[in-house]
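User: Here's a chain of 298 residues. Predict its fold as tokens.
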Amino acid sequence: MEESFGRSVIDDFVGEYASGRTPNPCVRCNSNTKIPDLLRRARKLGCDAIATGHYARAVVASQAGGTPGRHVSPDDVRILRGLDEGKDQTYFLWGVPREVLPYLRFPVGELTKPEVRERARRLGLATADKPESQEICFVPSGDYAEFLGRKLGSGHIALQPGAMVTSDGDVVGEHGGYARYTVGQRKGLGGGRGRALYVLGVHPTSNEVVVGSHDELFRSDVSIGDLNWLTTHPHAGERVRVQVRHRARAVDATVERIDAGTLALRLDEPQRAITPGQSGVIYRADELVGGGRIRAAA
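Assistant: Prediction complete.
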């Protein structure tokens, strides 16, 4: 799987940072490599389905919550949030191809994390008490800038110093390479200005990092591209819920516009640090509808 993973996940990760965006490599992995490629391997082995450890649920609406299977249409399968709200991972599944839905199994989706650990202990599994990791699997050190340097070369503009400016264009300092910054970031901006500054945006063409106050981080309008729908897509005027970060709660929103490539939303409550490149994931109640990559927020 190494070549596919490198092309679909690592190359995309590097390209997004080089373009001034902050990617979700786990979404790319699930969508392009882990689930579709694993299913193709499974079929060669004569398997009917694949199971993953995501905290999510796949049900068949026409069978009152029955299990998906080979004779079920993708149109009948619904992906729901995991019962453990604190561990729900549907945010990372919006990009999977719709046609794979009948062949997905999420055996821990009906359980809480403590219940999963207890079952693992009873089975004598070495992972029963394994600490959870938040690191990117292919950057285990956590130093993604060093990883980008090896991939892009230290001379790439994304890693070169440039101006740190306010939203009014005033230069207030120098940054150490725009790929090292993401919207909402406070650390690494330097001090001595008498007020806390946060990253508001990254402008690769001018090699600038835009900074401002905490209040300037909040946005109400979101544009999402690279759309993928797992069920009937929303229509203009529809009320939906949208999640703009993995650890953020979903918020109510209205679909302002939708076409073949872009979804525009107006949020009921302004959200902090909506970041281009991250996922904007759409729900109807607990059902995962689909999503895309955040292009812009205003």
